[in-house]
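Objective 1.3, modelling of assemblies. Example input:
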Amino acid sequence: MSALQSDIWTLNMGPQHPSTHGVIRFILRTDGEIISDADPDIGFLHRGMEKIAELIPYASFMPYTDRLDYLAAINMNWGWALAVEKLAGIEVPRRAEFLRVITGELNRISSHLIGVGALASDMGAFTPFLHAIRDRERINDLFEEICGARLTYNYCRIGGVSEDAPPGWLNRLGDFLDYYEPMIDVFNDLITNNKIFVERLRKVAPVSAQMAIDYGLVGPNLRGSGVKFDLRKQEPYSIYPELEFDIPVGIGYHHGDLGSCFDRYMVRIEEIRQSVKIIRQCLKVIPEGEIIAKVPRTLKPPAGEVYCRTEAPRGEVGFYVISDGSPKPARVKIRTGSWSAMSIIRDLSRGWMIADLVAIIGSLDIVAPEVDR
Amino acid sequence: MASFSDIAKAVESKFPGVIKETVSEGLLPHVVVESSRVREVCEYLKTDPDLAFDFLSAIAGVDKGEQLEVVYLLYSYAKLHSFTVKAKVSRAEAKVPSVTSVWAAAEWHERETFDLMGIIFDGHPDLRRILLPQDWVGYPLRKDYKYPASYDGVDLRRDEKDWPDPGSEELYK
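Predicted structure (tokens):
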């Protein structure tokens, strides 16, 4: 009989792996099933977005921002539009601001649906994923009506939005919310309060608030660690100051550890409710009027630079834009939420099981193209 | 919450002469500090209880021709204020001290800036390419970068009319 094998194994996870949600590779060094090191190897989807931005006019970069985070395309469009509007000093019409908030929050719901659904499916529960996809299809139908696309919307424009809501669309959106709001409870009954699911996550890979800030975690991942910070509240843009909503944070749900995988999951579920609340408020008071400001055909923002941060579903997305007064940006740097979420994994996964790494990736809600850009 | 000029003054009084240039106008007020002392300044910005810049939002490399810039975009969750520090280095010797010991987030941001802009971060524990393959030649975000004709036996030539080389001179007059 041979002796027990006691050495460290090097194992490849990905680039094609069902739980990495895209093309991400981890070089694992494991002691049996315990991870001693997980080195993320990224860049498979690197398309040189920042370089492309320097080669084309400001408005032409809008469709590219869709592809940054394809699950929350409108929030990415919005971040880019806002940065350029600040740079060029463009005032956005009020109706367009409402349409941006409505579609942005709707996109946040659909993005979180994929986030929580995929986490459930990674944990072995496939049905909740189908529930999430089913409801997301209805959101996609609404998006198709308003802008013609179901995934990469290219909806925001510099100075406003591309299309006004078609007749009856706002009513149909209200109908959808009436249908969807009880569905959150159905989803919770199905999976969120499921004992097996809770036990699987509530004590796995807790991130302390200090560690989260040190690694630059943003959005739901940061709030999952109990930091009550949301750019929509603390550095409000658009019409968010007029709207009422709460910032859900992790509290160690189900007697788990603060900042565990389950807290991050739970923050997303609660954020869906808040988004529904925001859209309902907007539907009540959305004014008539123009949907896009008068923007010159060749936009030449004055020389200068701006760093504009917005709250996307995966947290802060920052566009650092430098203009030299020409029709093309001199430099664009894009800071995304998945990037920092990815960078914490190496430190976070040490000492956990390989199966827990799947939970960690899922709970951080990483989207590969946003990491690689 | 401290204003931009208060923070700049605090840095100046702690490290006299370290600030080479202060730009308080415009959408992004910032200070340019001596590149060799970036780490000290950043450490002070993070640890001083009145400034408490606990969050490194991003590090960006910018090609300004003769010089390269490293831009540190900072924010404080404790005090809810923001600040921007820049360091200028020469193109030939693009090197700044690493701030990985100050913020853990810097590790990846610095690797990215090294990968795409070719700035060396002195003291970084693991400075290798992150987005591009390890054997890639050149730093794509530099303005004079030339596209390679091939990589790993794959032909990368493009239609020069539709997609001119970003390093070509008529684009960057």
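The radius of gyration of chain B is 18 Å.
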